Amino acid sequence: MVPPTEEKVLRFLATAGLAPDDFVMESGSISLLKKFVRQDYGIGFVERGGIDEELESGTLERVRILEGSPVIEFGIGYRNRKDLSHPARAFLRLLDASENLRAAERPP
């Protein structure tokens, strides 16, 4: 069974005419992918959060996908907010604030 995130990426790449046979390597290790990209073995498809430090230091560059970039949504579940620890509640407040910022940035 293919994980949902990988399935979404594979569908996205298929729209560009690419199939899994076109890939030289696949890895669940972001560290390994970054190492191979830094050694100029090719390009890597990773979550942006996994390369923030490298983007800031200039050791890797971001390639923007102009059209049809895949959107991967994540959810967080909990039974009862009052039963959550203080750090968990603070994290949910952070997510709420982040969503409000994104909503404000969206065009009308």
How would you briefly describe this protein structure?
The chain has 108 residues and is mostly helical.
What are the defining features of this structure?
mainly alpha
Radius of gyration: 18 Å
Count helical runs: 4
What's the domain count?
2
Element order: H for helix, E for strand: HHHH
How helix-rich are the residues, as a percent range? 40-55%
Task: Give an account of the 3D structure.
By secondary structure, this protein is an all-alpha fold. The chain has two domains: 4-57, no CATH class; 75-108. Helix content is 44%, strand content 0%. It is built from four helices and no strands. The chain has helices at residues 4-15, 30-38, 52-57, 86-105. The longest helix is centred in the C-terminal third of the chain and has 20 residues, at 86-105. The mean pLDDT is 80.
Please write out the topology:
Layout lengths: L3 H12 L14 H9 L13 H6 L28 H20 L3
